[in-house]
Write a structure and sequence with these properties.
The chain has 391 residues and is α/β, with parallel strands linked by helices. Helices cover 38% and strands 17% of the residues.
Length: 391
């Protein structure tokens, strides 16, 4: 049986998207009959992989990956592993060279294109990656290139949810999901027994113009800039969105295990404005229950597209900007701006778009939703896994 290693970390600094996409790729590798071992500097990734995958802890500094290379090579050789996926911005060209020259075929996730990494394969699933001329950038090295949206590693739950829906709010299956993402087995019973609960259930058969009840929000797994509080407060204050007058309106905040609830966010939760979904697994259900989404231009943006949720993106890290600009330029998802540059400008753009979505009728929303869903076919992780086994 092929055994493939995945080198990735997770903590308050490293975006949760790294470990989540690696998990998805690992799942595809398992389905192909491969054994997978995660390798990390410390044990912070264990809650994300639990008992599903083996994990080897190097007990090193995740910021100084060159210092771990001997320990990593010793482990790989001892286990007879000859292929590895490396997903870290702290890996250096020398780190990759040491792996390759010691018999380890390496795939590197390079979505920054700042340096040449002498790997066997280079992965960048950003939509604009095919236009970045990686071939010229890498010159004579000529690695295998996995570029563009066909390699987006979407989790299986999003593939299944995409197949169930005909666009935002239209669920083909008999099951329905409430505004907190919980499954409602029989919508008729809920409607008959509790009219108020029925009104809170996300619309399944269309939208009313000038109505928007559920907003999906994520600001990164740990929310290192405290943006969840800034954005939530602005939404609640906005007189056009009527959050203070209508208790059915909710902000669904998706956060990772490293997220810390501030005093103000706790008050928003207690007042019923915000529902916190922290370290949850049913993300596709939660997204699909919402009318519009506010998200960084990262993995979550791809997931929202796969289930057809109208979205606006923002950035707070350098690597997010290329995707944000591409999605805006191609007319898929508007870009609010970089919160590091101008908080007020980004916040104004977000509120303007949310208000715009509220005025759209069902036909217009479904047209945009369908366009988003066509971007991603859900086979990206399988294609990456296949390339890992063949390189």
């Amino acid at each position: 049986m092929n055994k493939i290693a995945i080198r990735v970390d997770a903590n308050e600094i490293v975006a949760t998207g790294h470990i989540m996409r690696c998990r998805t790729i690992a799942g595809s590798l398992q389905q192909m009959g491969c054994s997978v071992v995660f390798v990390s500097a410390d044990n912070n990734i264990e809650p994300y992989i639990q008992d599903e995958f083996e994990n080897y802890v190097l007990e090193t500094n995740w910021r100084k990956m060159d210092e771990e290379i001997i320990a990593l090579l010793d482990f790989l050789h001892e286990e007879g592993i000859t292929r590895i996926l490396v997903d870290s911005y702290y890996a250096t060209p020398e780190y990759i060279r040491m792996l390759e020259t010691n018999g380890i075929r390496t795939m590197y996730v390079d979505d920054m294109q700042k340096e040449v990494f002498p790997a066997s394969a280079i992965l960048n699933y950003s939509p604009g990656a095919p236009g970045l001329d990686y071939e010229s950038f890498y010159g004579e090295l000529s690695p295998m290139f996995l570029l563009g949206t066909k390699y987006i590693p979407i989790r299986e739950q999003f593939v299944q949810k995409s197949r169930q829906t005909e666009g935002t709010g239209f669920i083909i299956s008999a099951e329905r999901f409430g505004t907190d993402g919980e499954l409602i087995k029989n919508i008729d019973i809920v409607a008959n027994e509790n009219a108020e609960a029925f009104e809170g259930v996300h619309r399944t058969f269309g939208y009313k113009t000038n109505e928007l009840n559920n907003i999906f929000l994520t600001t990164g797994g740990a929310d290192s800039m405290g943006l969840s509080e800034i954005i939530s407060a602005a939404i609640i204050r906005d007189p056009e969105l009527h959050f203070k007058e209508d208790k059915n309106k909710k902000i669904h905040l998706l956060a990772g295990r490293f997220y810390r609830v501030t005093e103000k966010m706790q008050q928003f939760i207690e007042d019923g404005y915000v529902i916190l979904h922290q370290n949850v697994s049913n993300v596709a259900d939660i997204m699909s229950s919402c009318d519009v989404a506010i998200t960084p231009a990262g993995t979550t943006l791809y997931e929202l597209c796969s289930v057809g949720v109208l979205s606006i993106s923002f950035v707070f890290a350098e690597n997010q900007e290329p995707d944000a600009l591409y999605f805006a330029r191609e007319g898929y998802v508007p870009y609010a701006g970089d919160f590091r540059d101008d908080v007020n400008e980004a916040m104004t753009a977000i509120l303007t778009y949310v208000e715009e979505v509220m005025t759209m009728d069902t036909t217009e929303r479904l047209e945009i939703s369908g366009k988003l869903k066509k971007l991603i076919d859900g086979q990206g992780a399988d294609r990456i896994a296949e390339a890992l086994t063949e390189m």
